[in-house]
Amino acid sequence: MSADRFRKWLMYAYAATLLAFIILPLLIVVPMSLTSSNSLAFPTPGWSLRWYAELWVDQRWPNALWNSVVIGLSTTVLASLLGIPAAIGLAWSDFAGKRIIYAIIAAPLVTPVVIVGVAAFSFFATLGLVGNKLSIILVHTAMAVPVMLTTVVASLSTFDRTLLRAAASLGAGTMRTFFKVVLPLIAPGVITGAIIAFIISFDEVVVASFLSTGAERTLPRMIFSGVRESISPAIAAVAVLLIAFSAVLLGVIAILQSRSQTLRAKVSA
């Protein structure tokens, strides 16, 4: 066996081992969610769908799901409205302090989430907004904007700016050029950033634990509380649904990235 072929198989083995290490703990949750027992157990003593039905009987779970969806969508919209203009300004402008501004915007990515949660709780407690969706949305937006910014900047880096001059020569204004020329070409990056922003908000638990109370609990906060208070197989059922949902979103991102590469190749040609 040649050295190149050996390295290739070694890389495959490493990738398979790493993938198994990540996926196997997730797969174990599936039979645990189908148990007939009243507690989490593996292997399961029997099979039942009762815990999936329990998610709709116990109104705390649908309410938590609704809160997570509302907060996630609101975060996605705000992150898009703030991240896209910021990305255009940073990608197509050259000014003093550009790197500093980018570092400030990206700060939430490197700041420990616990510190963000403590600071957010202290700030919003003085405003009386703890336990309000608005406080969670604002903090999640600050955490999602850097991701939106990064994906849009990556799309703009390959954008042919001669198209802007062509649109201007045909009499198109700034807004018309943006919606008819720029946005369609960077749409895969925008949608990818929006999906990741939604996932960040939907799955976030630390900030939600600090800022959500009672009826405003999010789904991750409900899961975390359930693990602490009562180990119910309903938690495993929720986890399976969340894994499936995340897998679908990741599949959409993969398709968008593939289409983005195809579109860029066509534009370059």
UniProtKB/TrEMBL annotation:
An annotated GO cellular component: plasma membrane
UniProt domain ABC transmembrane type-1: residue ranges: 65-253
Subcellular location as annotated: Cell inner membrane; Cell membrane
Primary location class: membrane
UniProt keyword annotations, A-Z: Cell inner membrane, Cell membrane, Membrane, Transmembrane, Transmembrane helix, Transport
Pfam families referenced in this protein's UniProt entry, alphabetically: BPD_transp_1
SUPFAM superfamilies named among the record's database cross-references: MetI-like
BP GO annotations: transmembrane transport
Membrane spanning residue stretches: 65-88, 100-124, 136-156, 177-202, 234-256
Listed CDD domains: TM_PBP2
Top-level taxon of the source organism: Bacteria
Membrane topology according to the record: Multi-pass membrane protein
Family from the record: Belongs to the binding-protein-dependent transport system permease family.
Protein's name according to its UniProt entry: ABC transmembrane type-1 domain-containing protein
Phylogenetic lineage: Bacteria, Pseudomonadati, Pseudomonadota, Alphaproteobacteria, Hyphomicrobiales
